[in-house]
Design brief:
- Helix content is 22%, strand content 26%.
- It has 200 residues and is an alpha/beta fold.
- The chain is globular.
- The termini are far apart.
Length: 200
């Protein structure tokens, strides 16, 4: 049994669109690409290094796949390119794209069914990077085992959100947290069952 882990950057108001730079994903007229860049510090690099130091496979939606495949194959090794190039990439797409990045495998048929089947297999953890639209499918089908979220101290107000309108109300349990020198909260949460309400 493999864990499916959502690993992503989000703003304080839940936006995950285009953290890495202008033009990364400007769909819907999004004009704030690159909102995460000026917050990076050494501790964040260490936490990222820990997350990619153990075996993992990647799960990507088509748009995120195209963005990453355009960068990592020719990126310098000191940027961490090797671990991403060597990892198996499972790609969800409504079409039948040519997947030229090394070790890329299409998810056949329905993405939720395909990933549920992958979770049943032996192998390294499945890390979802970016892929806002795919994550909405995973949330609707209750397939996420863990969230590794980096919450940046910015508010954008519009854009693709991690928890969209289709999110199922539920509780989460905090497993670990760190805070960067720039105020980025790096947390790990796991699902903790149904949302329990109460009254004061």
């Amino acid at each position: 049994m493999r864990k499916l882990i959502v690993q992503t950057f989000v703003t304080l108001d839940g936006v995950m669109q285009a953290p890495g730079g202008p033009g990364e994903d400007d769909s819907g007229g999004f004009a704030h690409g690159g909102w995460s860049v000026n917050y990076w510090d050494d501790q964040m690099g260490e936490v990222m290094g820990e997350a990619t130091s153990r075996p993992f496979a990647m799960v990507l939606g088509r748009r995120t796949y195209d963005i990453m495949a355009a960068y990592w194959p020719t990126a310098p090794e000191e940027t961490g390119a090797k671990v991403f190039n060597d990892a198996t990439k499972y790609v969800a797409s409504r079409g039948r794209p040519t997947l030229e990045w090394s070790n890329s495998v299409p998810i056949e048929g329905d993405a939720a069914d395909g990933l549920a089947a992958l979770k049943q297999e032996d192998g390294p953890e499945l890390q979802v990077h970016g892929s806002a639209n795919l994550i909405q499918t995973l949330l609707r089908h209750n397939l996420v085992d863990e969230y590794r979220l980096w919450v940046f101290p910015v508010v954008i107000g519009s854009g693709k959100r991690l928890f969209g309108d289709g999110a199922i109300p539920s509780g989460l349990r905090l497993l670990d947290s760190k805070v960067s020198t720039t105020g980025v909260v790096m947390g790990i949460w796991e699902p903790a069952g149904e949302l329990v309400t109460g009254s004061f």
